[in-house]
Amino acid sequence: NCQLLQLDSYWKKDIVVKNWEDPEFLFLCYNFFFFLFSVYDFDNLLKDIVKSRKVNKFVIVEGFVIAASEAVRKEMDFLFFLDCKNEVAKERRFKRDSMTDLDDEFNTFKYYDDYVWPFHTKYVEKYIKGDKSIIHLDGEGKTAAKEIWNKLGNT
């Protein structure tokens, strides 16, 4: 009994914003102007989390700004953060099939270097680094899946 919810499935595709990779921008939109403008549909994500928890032993919520949402965090038993170096993240990003769906402007190394990685670093500093409730894992090695399984196996 496991359900996977991916934050990208809750992206409002009709909204195009240059700094959408910035977690502060996303949550500014959600917390203060969500009724007017939000790039992610967090209300439906939260509803789906609650609904999924009722029928599944495990609900995995995947997304790069999950840790910044207090409402989502309250629904989590564990929060894992898979860390990796810039070069590894960049290589993985451009190997994803979903990258072919993006406009050319968002599918460039320049966009990654100018927006994605700087905002990722900012997010990690603000929401991840030093938070003892987050379980940090090596996203480059082969032990992360085993570590997650071991943690979940003890629940």
Note down, in words, how this protein is organized:
The chain is of the alpha/beta class and 155 residues long. It is 45% helix and 13% strand. The chain is built from six helices and four strands. The chain has helices spanning 23-33, 42-55, 70-74, 86-95, 109-128, 144-153, and strands at 2-6, 58-62, 79-83, 134-138. The strands form two sheets. It has a two-stranded parallel ribbon with strand order 1-2. Strands 3-4 form a two-stranded parallel ribbon. The longest helix is centred in the C-terminal third of the chain and has 20 residues, at 109-128. The radius of gyration is 16 Å and the shape is globular. The model is unreliable at 31-37 (pLDDT under 50).
Strand line-up of the largest beta sheet: 1-2
Roughly how many Å is the radius of gyration? 16 Å
Number of strands: 4
Q: Strand share of the residues?
A: 5-15%
> What characteristic shape results from the CA principal axes?
globular
| Count of helical stretches | 6
Structural class: alpha/beta
Tell me roughly what share of residues is in helical segments.
40-55%
The span between the termini is 14 Å
Largest sheet: 2 strands, parallel
- What are the segments in which pLDDT stays under 50 over at least 5 consecutive residues? 31-37
Spell the H/E element sequence.
Answer: EHHEHEHHEH
Overall pLDDT, averaged?
Answer: 78
Summarize the structure.
With about 160 residues, this protein is an alpha/beta fold. The chain is about 45% helix and about 15% strand. The strands form 2 sheets. Strands 1-2 form a two-stranded parallel ribbon.
